[in-house]
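Reopening: structure tokens for the adenosine-5'-diphosphate complex, inputs below.
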Amino acid sequence: MTADFTSTALTLAAVPVCSVITLSTTRGMRYLLAASDQRPVIRAAWRIRRTWRRTAMRVGLAHTEPIKPHAPVGTPGSGRRTLVPAIRVHRETWGVRIDAYTVGRLGVEEFEAAADHLANAWRVPLVRVEQHRPGVVRIRALLRDPLTQPTTFTEQAAGEGDPLLWVPGIDADGQPVTLRSSGVSGVVVAGLAGYGKTSLLNARFCALAPSPAVQFVLIDGKGGPDYDELFARAWLHAKDDLEQVSDILATIHRLMTQRQKAIRSALGVKNMWHLGPSATWPLVVVVVDEAHTFFNESKGGDAQSKRRDALAREIVRLVEELVRKGRNVGIQVVLATQKATGDAIPTKIRDNCQVAISFAQRTSEAATAALGSDISEHPHAHPRRLQDAAYIGVASMVAEGRPGFTLVRTPYVADQDAERIAAATAHLVTDPLALLAGHPTAA
Ligand SMILES: Nc1ncnc2c1ncn2[C@@H]1O[C@H](COP(=O)(O)OP(=O)(O)O)[C@@H](O)[C@H]1O
Ligand SMILES: [Mg+2]
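Re-run output (same inputs, fresh job):
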């Protein structure tokens, strides 16, 4: 198929807009009638169409082949021809959508690799690429990145208390993104300080708090006032006191073993997720913010350091077991940390977590520690890209039903909203251990 996209666009780039408009009445009218924030999009669409063949060849999105593959060299018609992918150009609110029809060995990977060069050629801040369907690569030239538009938390958007649903936010096209929650026993939320980890945890709390099928354990390694008002809706809570945290984790561990013994008689199944959580067998969400606070050993020689190190080792052991064995009985540990490298979160904990989320990261190593090595193959969803302040509240994650990694704009949760929801739902707190009474939990 021929690749030459014959653009009927006018010679625009170098001439003032007014002279362009006189050149084409319909286009000119459309341009004049467009809202002022849409005019740059229209101009970019024109420019992209008009310069496509030249741009494609310059950024390496061209395929050459012999015109007559079997003709002897030197005979008439034995030369080579250059094909560039045909495109269709559409305008969208945030920029221009280009569907490119693959040709030869030019596929989504080659377009990904050329994305930054396309952004330069088109003079747009961002170009995103995805495989739309077999044979079609979808390119978005974004004049403004929709991910940089902050949003705020609303109960409806968050899934209205359904513990099986986790909607952490919206994607770059404004579409809701879902994360796996069912059958998940471990979640890691990583990212530089001040980029939205605690806000994400608050959003999850606010979404689940109205459900009687969820109980919370809130542990704040920062030790500040962040969670004070939320404690009202928590079965157990602690700040950065290692002894207290170790005791709380031991209690959750006891719940896990007792639930393991009781599950068959209480629920008639071996896996709580087959039925889903309920008020009598609630999902227990254990939030540990600034989790690295609890895992590090100081290796000091004095008695106090030894005591702290023993507690840290015990906390690591308990969290590791909860993440590894808590799934079937409905215990979900959510760990937030600035760094997800092995020195901050033991790898035997981190690597057993089924869900990973990363806000901005400074280095590839930190991003790989949080999201796994596959992230290096998805440069446009890479957490290093998120270091600009405009991306506070944006995180990279593997979303349900989507290939690769997705960048998600998470909503900001105002303190007063979280406090209001915690106070209004405080009456739902119950002790999940007490709910097991009457079932065979004795050793
Ligand atoms: N989703 C968001 N959207 C917009 N701003 C946010 C968002 N999340 C956080 N912020 C801003 O960033 C600040 C730090 O957020 P926080 O969640 O405490 O970060 P972290 O826990 O990663 O250190 C907040 O006080 C708020 O001003
Ligand atoms: Mg925080």
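The radius of gyration is 27 Å. The chain has two domains: 17-144, 149-436. Marking as resolved unless the reporter disagrees.
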